[in-house]
Amino acid sequence: MRKLLLSLIAFAAVQITYAQKTDKRLAGIDTFITRVLNEWKAAGVTVAIVEKNKVVLAKGFGYKDYENKVPVTENTLFAIGSCSKAFTSSLLAFPMKDGKLDLDKPVTQYLPELRFIDDDLNNNVTTRDMMSHRTGLPRHDLAWYGSSTRRDSLIYSIRFFEKTAPLRRVWQYNNFMFLAQGVLAEKLCGKTWENLVKEQLFTPLGMGASNTSMHDHVLAPDYSFGYKEKDGKVVKMKFMNIDAIGPAGSINSNATDMAKWVMMWVNGGKFNGKEILPSLYYNQAISSQMIIGAGLPTKEQPDVFFSNYGFGWFLANYRGHYRVEHGGNIDGFSTSTCFFPTDSIGIFVSVNQNGSAIPSIIRNTIADKLLGLPYKDWQRTQRNAYEKALATAKEQAKADSTQRKLGTKPTHAITDYTGTYTSDGYGSIVIDQKKDGLTAHYNSLTFTVKHYHFNYFNFIPVDDGVDADESAALKGQFNINVKGEIESLSLPLQSGVKDIVFKKQVQTIEVSKADLEKYVGEYELPGPTIVKVYIKGDKTLMVFVPGQPDYELVAVKTDLFNFKALSGFSVKFDKDENGNITALNFVQPNGTFKAKRK
């Protein structure tokens, strides 16, 4: 009896009216959605439609488990990717309301651990700038994608990212800035981002099935696998855990729960008459904070125009109606969440297909029906755009092949390219020899590394053990220092900035303190200049040259030490036939200089 009473109370708390039958305006929508899935070779999709306080439709189509033909339901969880961003920005509405956060003060006042590449950004970037993608930073996505790095480490890496525009000059999408918003919310509220999303948004909205991690996704009673279309077939993808960058896109939800989320936005931030989001925040969130681009109407789409951004929302004029929307894409899933505030209509579409056009096709078709707009063939529009993109990619691949200088060879033996290469902002790449070739491992990504020309190599992504087409390759250049050693690897990981440089880590050897003792002493350079070698602590060999700082040395071979802080500089010790050290040689880019032992 008590369980029944609790159920009745829970039901009463969510006063949503569900349509008893399909709305006449949506006649034929089931058939249409099924046809779209078939034509795009997709497994399944989940759809929610709300109007004012009514759920017009919450339904699944196709399969959540394609191999076993298990159907999608309205309760099947899908990864919603960047549709999570509006949740994260909304968390800042609460400290903003309480006077703990001013969106227009430098964010470093609240989050001092967040630093940028220069003081102009450090002193001026505000929370509003981060919420509306106008900090001047491009995406730098490969610095986090597939990484298991902690959030504090990702926040630290931001200081190394090159910007491509002055502050507030250009709109540039940036996931790191939404990570920073999540960390800011944690700092201001004293709880994890995951707990804040649950307590301040999921629970008051009754979104009981939604979660914030792929770990929880696969433990749920009703969840979808992710897929991609490959050669006309539906192929399962591995789940991508993005907890590290979670505030930018790690929420998983379903049609039932997302109907409540969009219903709250349709109703001005209120749910069942209760304020969830303060009106001051709500109005700013769906107002233009930054111009994305010209957003001019085109010949093909004369009634879709202006392109701006609010707080975690894209804004546009959709055929004479004000639309607030955001997409989401993460491995195996594509999503669109949108609402029309003046029409009181909200639409959520999520498909278990990677990089799919399906959400926009279904979203626009539903919107046209509910808004009573003239028919448009959105299916054909997206298919034309898709085929045009494929043709462009082929042309680019063809152009790339004409640049290659055939018959060239790398400057070094293949084994010399192996090792660990490290970047301050992007982490480490490990290159191994595999049979007669090279393989690179970066975060959770694997690349086959093939010679292109000279010291340029193609880094070709490997997916489930199969190399992608070489048109998808990144071109990396191995750089050589004055001593002829491979010193670093440059990769074009972010357009608009210089190639990211990964420095090759020198393999060091362990030398005992007793063995280091034989190097300790004074050495005389011509001049005369007295150089001192001494041991710091237990096992750190140091060298002191008058007028310069003390330099730490690291052992790389017997009697050979590299300067830890200076690339291309090393010390080579000479010894006689009895093994006694007689001199040291400073080996550096401008020559080798010998100092005899006193």
UniProtKB/TrEMBL annotation:
Family matches, as SUPFAM superfamilies: beta-lactamase/transpeptidase-like
Domain Peptidase S12 Pab87-related C-terminal: 404-503, 510-587
Domain of life: Bacteria
Beta-lactamase-related domain sequence ranges: 36-356
MF terms in GO: hydrolase activity
Gene3D superfamilies per record: 2.40.128.600, DD-peptidase/beta-lactamase superfamily
Matches recorded under Pfam families: Beta-lactamase (PF00144), DUF3471 (PF11954)
UniProt KW Hydrolase keyword: yes
Keywords on record: Hydrolase, Signal
Signal peptide: 1-19
Protein's name according to its UniProt entry: Serine hydrolase
